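As a next step, the fold was encoded as tokens, giving this record:
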Amino acid sequence: MVYLGTHPDDRVIRTSPSIDVSETPSQHLHDYGEFGDYVIFVDESGDACLDPISTHFPILNVSFCLIRKDHYIDMIVPTLQALKYRYFGHDQVILHEREMRQGRDAFERIHQTSSVRDTFHADVQRWVAESPFHIVSATVHKERLVERYKHPFDPYHIAMRFCLERTKDFLMRHNQQGRVTQIVFESRGKKADRATDEEFARVLASEQPWGYRTTDFSGTPLEALFISKQANVAGHQLADQIARPLALQVLKPDRPSHLMPCITRKLLAQVEFPKRHPPSDLKQLPNAWQRAMQRDPTTRRSA
């Protein structure tokens, strides 16, 4: 698209002959075959620190949101932009679960009127529910971890390993062999990003195998990216809505988040480690996992 005219008010917008305005944004997504069909956004709730362990929040959750790129471009991003324009008049507001919950910063005005607040949160919940994506999630209860193991693995390594192994299985079954899948982490500064990148590489290299199982990641190239929250990435904001409810499901199972019904429908695999004694009803979801492995339900679009 080219702009003709010297003053912004005098510009005439003309469409380049090489661009078909009837095309969807994802029309030429696969013109270059190096990259895969999926993009993955990661968020976490809690921290990996074992000394000391927070008594208020003694858990770490890491959640992967697996999204087909055409669905992300054509559905998830524009729907979020429309939601932001409706409530804020622009799309530069960043949806952050904590600020939304507490009514801080950009969300203070939303919380001044209960009807607007309730409608806004319902629309965000609807955006999450109607967005086509899958979730792989791992929650590590750190107090149980140090009680049961004399030399426990790093909690972040445990969560990262589970999520990467299940992601690799999913990608293999969806014909992503040999194609680069990018996993997008929220940048938390150079030191934290370097530590996450090293843990990511350690899992892929199987440097700390558990028992007899060693996962070969070579067939599905995975690349870690670190992007600031201030970049206003829709995928980060989607993942941000997911991690805390999944963490609270372990910490306070009798007080589930209002988002849990729609989150549960999107879960491919979930683990709580170490498991409770007696075991809780939180576990991997083999039926949902098997269905997704047989056929990706997000390929079906609404009419």
